[in-house]
Structures are given as C-alpha cells and as structure tokens.
Specification:
Strand content: 5-15%
Order of helices and strands: HHHEE
Protein name: Lyase domain-containing protein
Helix content: 40-55%
GO molecular function: lyase activity
Keywords: Lyase
Distance between the termini: 50 Å
Radius of gyration: 22 Å
Structural class: alpha+beta
C-alpha cells in the first residue's frame, strides 16, 4: 500500500469560524463543575429497588438505573446569551 503524504500539512491557510471561535473560548473559559444530581438519582433508584442489599447488580438493573437517571435528570441547555434551562421528562 502506498504512503499518502501532503506537501503542507499545516492549517495556517484555514481560520476558525466565528461560531467555532466562540465555542473554543467558552470551553477554555468554563469553570469546572461537579454534578451532584446523578449520584443522588442513582442512590434514590438503588434505595427504591433495594439494590444495596445485593452483592452484584445485573446488567438489566444497571440499564434500568441509567434509564431512571435519564428520565429524572433535568436537561440544561447553554446558549451564548446566557444559561437557558429547560426541564423535561422523557
């Protein structure tokens, strides 16, 4: 198989679009956060189904726990004009 090479592999000829530049800035300006919702929802699910008593949890129970988290966790959308929160249930 022949090697594929490029004469100039630099990206100097290309720039970032305004949208990508804004996303890049938002990514690097963001402060790290810790989400406490997911562990709380998982604990609630395990308590409701008495899973803390089990030595092992089946793959089906893990899938049900994941579904519970997705159904009960609010959806948050960020927009460049600020934070827009939208709460929904699946």
């Amino acid at each position: 198989m022949a090697d594929i090479t490029l004469k100039d592999i630099s990206l100097q000829a290309y720039g970032l679009t305004e949208r990508v530049r804004g996303l890049r800035k938002a990514y690097f300006d963001a402060m790290p956060e810790i989400c406490t919702e997911r562990p709380r929802l998982l604990t609630d699910f395990h308590n409701e189904h008495n899973l803390f008593r089990n030595d092992r949890i089946s793959i089906l129970e893990k899938a049900r726990a994941y579904r519970y988290v997705l159904r009960n966790r609010p959806l948050r959308l960020w927009h460049k004009t600020g934070v827009m929160k939208m709460f929904t249930r699946l």
